[in-house]
Amino acid sequence: MRLTVTTFVTMDGVMQSTGLYMNEVFDAADAFLLGRFSYQAMAAFWPQVNDPANRVAAQFNSCPKYVVTETLADLSWAGAVPLRGDIPKQVAELKQTPGRELQIHGSGALARSLMPHGLIDAYRLVIFPVVLGRGQRLFADGTPPATMRLVDTRSTGSGVVMHTYEAAGAPAFGSVQPGDVISDS
Predict the structure, then answer these.
(1) Domains in the chain: boundaries
(2) For a surface tag, which of 12, 101, 158, 163 has the fewest beta carbons within 10 Å of its beta carbon?
(3) What pLDDT, in 10s, does the model give residues 16-26?
(4) Where are the alpha helices (DSSP H) in 96-171?
(5) pLDDT for 100-155, tens place per residue?
(6) What pTM was estimated for this model as a whole?
(7) Residue 137: Cβ-neighbour burial (10 angstroms; 0-12, 13-18, 19+)
(8) Are residues 33 and 66 in contact, defined by beta-carbon separation less than 8 angstroms?
(9) How many helices (H) and strands (E) does the chain have?
(10) Predicted local confidence at residue 19, as pLDDT
């Protein structure tokens, strides 16, 4: 399975709670990887949504949910499995199981903890045209340098843009000299 991160951010990179759901994204999920706070927020809502036409609820309620937690003892949401201990190792093992996507939604601290291990295969960033200046950032100070390859982009009439990036390895550093021409080709 590929590990993907889907998050909603402002133009200055502040993570936001999900207010927009994309059926296409959830349709690709075979499992979810959640941090404790995201699990608690989602478990308080999604199990009560029983509308078969709601594809997000159908996926959340039917797929396995791997929850990174050292403190939660009762994971009452059907299909929830606690992960404790060496999380990068366990996530690497989960990625070896057959399937399409193991998806992280929200769970910024969890995503940031997996970045140094090169475990995230793709990022879906839904960018809202607003600047907040403060808040939790997906790519915080200390994030290891990485390159990304844009594989999809979409936009709405209100200016929300969805970019999908695949991890493309370590960056090659160089220098730009006065008079250099910078091109995207």
Answers:
(1) 2-167
(2) 158
(3) 554 464 788 98
(4) 108-114
(5) 999 999 888 999 999 999 999 999 998 888 888 888 888 888 888 889 999 999 88
(6) 0.84
(7) middle
(8) yes
(9) 5, 9
(10) 46
Residue with tokens 């199990």: 47
Rounded to whole angstroms, the Cα distance separating 154 from 111 reads 23
Question: In 3-state terms, what secondary structure has residue 66?
Answer: strand
Out of 3.40.430.10, 1.10.8.10, 3.40.190.10, 3.10.20.740, the CATH code matching 2-167 is 3.40.430.10
| Strand partners for 6 | 105, 124
Q: Is 82 exposed, middle or buried (0-12, 13-18, 19+ CB in 10 A)?
A: middle
Q: What percent of the chain has pLDDT over 70?
A: 90
Q: Is 163 helix (H, G, I), strand (E, B) or coil?
A: strand
Q: What is the pLDDT of residue 137?
A: 81
